[in-house]
Amino acid sequence: MTTPFWSVKFQKSVSPKGVDMQNKVQATPRLYKEVASKLLQEIQSGNYAVGARLPAERDLAVKYDVSRPVIREAIIALEVQGLVDVRVGSGVYVHSATGQKMIPAGDVSAIELTEARLLVESEVAALAASQITDDELAELEALVRKIEQENKTAGGKEEADADFHLAIAKATKNSALVESVERLWELRNTSREAALLHEKARHANIKPVVDEHTAILHALQERDPAAARAAMRAHLLQVLDSLLFATEQRAVDEARRSMQAKRERYSQLTA
Ligand SMILES: [Zn+2]
């Protein structure tokens, strides 16, 4: 495959020893999709009939030789499709054997999504720099302060970040660009993988960086398209870096859980 345009920067900042991080990212298993497909086959073949309860998470983990979080993700994927009902404290029940398309088209990876944001939003910022009004600048300034406040609240919401990026899109006065940026943020919220990775990044205490947003604001205040483009690009490269960090963390966690599942299975065999 071709080398993504940001990988040079990424390898420099995260992998000084020149390890091929790109391959690691590509190798991150999207096992849950495979498991979800297998479960769907079982449901459609009648092995798990409508109304029946699926085996427990730990048993499914052993059966498919994956970690329990992978099973959980697969169940969520089936739930989104209306194939199963998750009843808290009771279990997972087959609701229907006819789902829609297995994996929604919107299920892009967090890395793909941020790469697209990097391309689109850098140019959006450049255009906004030449169009933005004083009122819109005041709004952005308030949003930077809101990002700062949200960062201080433990487990708080992260609405100001989205609002900041959408406000810049609106400042272009180009409704196609506004729709594009809105859609990218929507994908971030609807893609399971993106949501999980962002959650992981949040747990690792990676928060929207105020300085990066301030730099974008300053460039827009100067009405300097080149500086705005560069500041937005720098910001989203940092987001990419933090996601790649979270991806690695996740791969390590997965490997650990998979080992644990194998151990459990072995101890069951030898018990
Ligand atoms: Zn941001």
UniProtKB/TrEMBL annotation:
SMART domains: FCD, HTH_GNTR. Keywords: Coiled coil, DNA-binding, Transcription, Transcription regulation. Pfam families: FCD, GntR. Residues 130-157 form a coiled coil. Residues 29-97 form the HTH gntR-type domain. CDD domains: WHTH_GntR. This is FadR/GntR family transcriptional regulator. It comes from Aurantiacibacter gilvus.
